[in-house]
Amino acid sequence: MKSTILRSGVVLACALGLAACGGGGDLYLQGPVYNVTEAGLVLQNNGGSDLAVGIRAATGQYDYFQFPNAISTDDNFNITVKSVPANIEKCVVNNPSGHANYYTTQQISVQCTLKTHALNVQVKGLTSDGLVIVNGTDKQTVAANQTSVTMTRVNQDAPYGVTVLTQPKTQTCTVSGGANGNGTGTVGADDVTSVVVTCS
Amino acid sequence: MKFSLLRPALAIGAALTLASCGGGGGKQTYPINVEVYNVQYPGLVLSTNGQDLTINGTSDLNTPIKATFPQEIEYGVEYDVLPKGQTETNLAGGSLPQHQSCSSGSSGFPRRNTAGLLQKIDVVVVCSVNAYPVGGTIKGLTGTGLVLINGSSGSSYVASPVIDATTKLPTDIKWALTQPGGLVAAPVTYNTTYGVTVLTQPSGQNCTVTGGNSPANNGSGTMDADAEKAGGVSNIVVTCTNK
Fold first, then answer.
1. Which residue from B minimizes the CA distance to A135?
2. What's the pLDDT band for B25 if we cut at 50, 70, 90?
3. CB–CB of B221/B193 below 8 Å?
4. What is the CB neighbour count within 10 angstroms for residue A189?
5. What is the overall mean pLDDT for chain B?
6. ipTM
7. What SS3 class is residue A5?
8. Which end of chain B is more exposed for a tag (fewer CB within 10 A), N or C?
């Protein structure tokens, strides 16, 4: 109750155009955001005005949030997720609520989980052992006569690019297909099944 | 029980700055414990107070290797747990695990402190596998929009043409993978693979990828010991020609 009165006083001071208008305190609700790759994450404090999480200049990524108004010691806070980007399954706020102090306002984080999809590669004409294909750091060995490879699942809206790391012993394989025709593309809302490795 | 009573008494003594603090029947001694996370390769030797502690085995980021230096140290003695060979003024090199770097100490359990100030000495050491840049040269780029990626790893490179003012010809561009946002380098971890492909072709051109350290000579490879020794992979050539 005391802080409510205090805050009203500050609002009044702001309305009167006084110099010390700063939002009522010196504690900022802020913390790291994990796994967000595009715009659309909106947070709220105490059901109040929306905070759209944007790109942080220092990293070029959506990896940090900070509510613009400072709050005072002992103010109640309760951070909730109002909406998430289209490629996010869900976001959970860790240590979302409490009485504000230097400790509690440093313990908040937002952990999001991206939607993922299968990346299944078709293999044609492989009669020799030794083929290894990669999608970046994801490496899969392909045996002779194998007709498909299940790669590690990929995040929605992320790119993929399948390429040959090691050719089979007695054949040469090339990669085609995918959204761009050369084994690359961007993952949409469905599994990716169009990448083809052709060996001869 | 005896110790837990004795220790607060020592702490009070210290707070009152009594001259005879810790005296009498011999000083209390403290074991120097360490918890080492994410050791994946051999070679780590920790050192403090003239003692060495070789860390054997492997651990992950959840369950550490717990070990204790051979000799306990007395109340009031300063300790500073570092990889052997490192000093406070040179926190690099030393007896680290192969292909890894380690940092010791956390806010709650500093690597450097005085025995007795905390209830016990328990230094946390966290290791990570080294990573190195991947990149090379882009040749012949005149169109806009070229995007190179390393699979779905999240790293990429977005290239713009650089045209020489005198010759009006495209200049070779040095490139290396960066994290999303393009501001931070995105190195490839030791013993993992990479495979650079063209996600988006530049306007009016086609680009092909060669080089890397796999026999496929197509911009793929593995960050192996040779690549590590070379400080990364810098021979991936992207050649762009007009359609």
1. B151
2. low
3. yes
4. 10
5. 89
6. 0.79
7. helix
8. N
